[in-house]
TrEMBL record:
<comment type="function">
    <text>Catalyzes the formation of acetyl phosphate from acetate and ATP. Can also catalyze the reverse reaction.</text>
</comment>
<feature type="binding site">
    <location>
        <position position="95"/>
    </location>
    <ligand>
        <name>substrate</name>
    </ligand>
</feature>
<dbReference type="GO" id="GO:0000287">
    <property type="term" value="F:magnesium ion binding"/>
</dbReference>
<protein>
    <recommendedName>
        <fullName>Acetate kinase</fullName>
        <ecNumber>2.7.2.1</ecNumber>
    </recommendedName>
</protein>
<feature type="binding site">
    <location>
        <begin position="333"/>
        <end position="337"/>
    </location>
    <ligand>
        <name>ATP</name>
    </ligand>
</feature>
<feature type="active site" description="Proton donor/acceptor">
    <location>
        <position position="151"/>
    </location>
</feature>
<keyword id="KW-0460">Magnesium</keyword>
<comment type="similarity">
    <text>Belongs to the acetokinase family.</text>
</comment>
<feature type="binding site">
    <location>
        <position position="387"/>
    </location>
    <ligand>
        <name>Mg(2+)</name>
    </ligand>
</feature>
<dbReference type="GO" id="GO:0006085">
    <property type="term" value="P:acetyl-CoA biosynthetic process"/>
</dbReference>
<dbReference type="GO" id="GO:0005737">
    <property type="term" value="C:cytoplasm"/>
</dbReference>
<feature type="binding site">
    <location>
        <begin position="285"/>
        <end position="287"/>
    </location>
    <ligand>
        <name>ATP</name>
    </ligand>
</feature>
<comment type="pathway">
    <text>Metabolic intermediate biosynthesis; acetyl-CoA biosynthesis; acetyl-CoA from acetate: step 1/2.</text>
</comment>
<keyword id="KW-0479">Metal-binding</keyword>
<dbReference type="GO" id="GO:0006083">
    <property type="term" value="P:acetate metabolic process"/>
</dbReference>
<dbReference type="Pfam" id="PF00871">
    <property type="entry name" value="Acetate_kinase"/>
</dbReference>
<feature type="site" description="Transition state stabilizer">
    <location>
        <position position="244"/>
    </location>
</feature>
């Protein structure tokens, strides 16, 4: 069974074709700069193998329909393609950023689902409307079942005490202002994979998943269900990220706006695109920050320390919520690859039963690795996330 996973953005389309007989990636690609003067298609055949083939096509891509047809051309090309015809695709899974309170599980696409995604689009206007465009174009090409998988769905098991804001209740009722959380597909996949690796039912485990990348979030997962997560109504909340501030005192927005003569939109743009790591030290890539620290850059050191401090705070809070922690799991770009950040986050947790194996932590994890010692009372793992595989698996359920 072949499943195509699509993530349609406002000016891009990411895709991955998977063979669900063995969960292998047949091809992947990204179409960028849609609607600009010059677009780019980057396509990879068998990207995870030694026989990988990469091609790059540069041409004007005026809209998503042209972009999607380019992807089909690449997937069916005699040399770097992996199928002969679009009809070989058995199902299409669509990543949707925001499902609001309306969508708590993956859904088979029909008119009511399309209307529902549009209804909650004001919670993520740039993303959801682009997703709808992607669905419309894909449905015109691929005559199979289409499934939506929502980033927010996994966190919909949070109790009201965790997702409510302490604002007038009628604001929540009218505008649905609450905490939703994001990266849910990643947290769900990693938690399930952790249970498999530990050889225990997910229902018996309490896990803290630590998704650290340019965007970062943590989740407290009890018995396979999320009971709390660090992001809020938007992905701006929580820990410090590449360009996002994470949590700040809400009154800071008014203070900065008045002192700097900025609108609320301009302050939000600052907190979203010019804060976080880049705001502290001018760099958003953790590799650059480590290099700067080695050269004595004090602000780079401050940025690293702040990130580790905030992540450790959330781990402590979720530990208190869960009562017992069986595993702490790092994932995503920084979580999977940055041993310095992992060490900084876990440093000093030995009295809590977390004992890091520094030699194991310093090695490349690959698909997964245990980086705690046998004496550690809590398993500490690094698990490579795979959101596309999770979306594909959910799509298969509907196709079958």
């Amino acid at each position: 069974m072949k499943i195509l996973v699509i993530n349609s953005g406002s000016s891009s389309i990411k895709y991955q074709l998977l063979d669900m007989e063995n969960d292998s990636v047949l091809a992947s690609g990204v179409i960028e700069c849609i609607g600009l003067e010059q677009g780019i298609l980057t396509h990879k055949k068998a990207p995870d193998t030694d026989a990988a083939i990469k091609i790059v096509v540069e041409q004007p891509i005026p809209d998503h329909a042209v972009g999607m047809h380019l992807a089909v051309d690449a997937l069916t090309h005699p040399e770097h393609g992996v199928i002969t015809d679009a009809s070989e695709i058995d199902g299409v899974g669509h990543r949707i950023v925001h499902g609001g309170e309306k969508f708590t599980t993956p859904m088979l696409v029909d008119q009511s689902v399309i209307d529902g995604i549009r209804e909650v689009a004001d919670l993520a206007p740039l993303h959801n409307l682009a997703h709808l465009t992607g669905i419309e174009v894909a449905q015109s090409i691929f005559k199979c079942k289409h499934v939506t998988v929502f980033d927010t769905a996994f966190h919909q098991t949070m109790p009201a005490k965790a997702y409510q804001y302490a604002i007038p209740y009628e604001i929540y009722e009218e505008l649905h202002v609450r905490r939703y959380g994001f990266h849910g597909t990643s947290h769900k996949y990693v938690a399930r994979r952790t249970a498999e690796l530990l050889g225990k039912p997910a229902e018996d485990l309490n896990i803290i998943t630590v998704h650290l990348g340019n965007g970062s979030s943590l989740a407290a997962i009890q018995g396979g269900k999320c009971i709390d997560t660090s992001m809020g109504m938007t992905p701006l909340a929580g820990v410090i990220m590449g360009t996002r501030s994470g949590n700040v005192d809400p009154a800071v927005l008014k203070f900065i706006a008045e002192k700097k003569g900025l609108s609320i939109q301009e302050v939000e743009e600052m907190l979203t695109k010019r804060s976080g790591l880049v705001g502290i030290c001018g760099m958003s890539d953790m590799r650059d920050i480590h290099s700067a620290i080695e050269k004595g850059d004090e602000r780079a050191k401050l940025a690293l320390d702040m990130v580790c401090h905030r992540v450790r705070q959330y781990i402590g809070a979720y530990w208190a919520e869960l009562g017992r922690v069986d595993a702490i799991v790092f994932t995503a770009g920084i979580g999977e690859n940055d041993d310095i950040v992992r060490l900084g986050v876990l440093k000093g947790m030995e009295p809590m039963g977390v004992i890091l194996d520094e030699a194991a932590n310093a090695k490349r994890a690959g698909e997964w690795a245990r980086i705690s010692t046998p004496e550690s009372k809590v398993d500490v793992l690094v698990v490579r996330t795979n959101e596309e595989l999770e979306i594909a698996r959910e799509t298969v359920k509907f196709v079958k």
